[in-house]
């Protein structure tokens, strides 16, 4: 009887230790995945910066450059969606993508693209004012017009 109790205690201890190891591995992997999402989000915002400059400096083929800007902003939006505890910032990024998609005539204006460039630059510098600037840009767009 005593042998069975000792065997059960040892088996329970081993099982519990294995459970703790697996929980630790899960938490570590989740953290690494979140870091990867954050890194990809920032990479896509860097591409958005490059695309804005490319569009502003271009002599021709603005449609292709705007499409590239739209695609990179969509990618940043998708990675923002995957990042945990990022809800308020995700909404702002989603709104920026929406105005690029729905109001291209207004967003192609140099002033709006410059404002977007400044906002994205501040976001990449990890400044909260970048999201505020992006919200101001979204609010400045006439959503009733084209």
What order do the helices and strands follow? HHHHHH
**Alpha-carbon distance between the two ends:** 83 Å
> Number of DSSP helices?
6
Beta-strand percent range:
under 5%
- Unreliable stretches: none
Shape descriptor reads: elongated
Instruction: Please bin the fraction of helical residues.
Output: over 70%
Structure summary, number of beta strands: 0
Estimate the mean pLDDT confidence: 92
Rg: 24 Å
Compute the number of structural domains. Answer: 1
Structural class by secondary-structure content: mainly alpha
Largest sheet properties: none
Structure report:
There is one protein chain. This protein has one domain (35-140). The model has no long low-confidence stretch (mean pLDDT 92). Helix 1 runs antiparallel to helix 2. It is elongated, with a radius of gyration of 24 Å. With 146 residues, it is an all-alpha fold. The protein is 86% helix and 0% strand. It has six helices and no strands.
Descriptive labels:
146 residues; mainly alpha
Layout: helices, strands, pairs:
Layout: H1 2-57, H2 62-82, H3 87-102, H4 104-107, H5 110-124, H6 128-140
Helix pairs in contact: 1-2, 1-5, 2-3, 3-6, 5-6
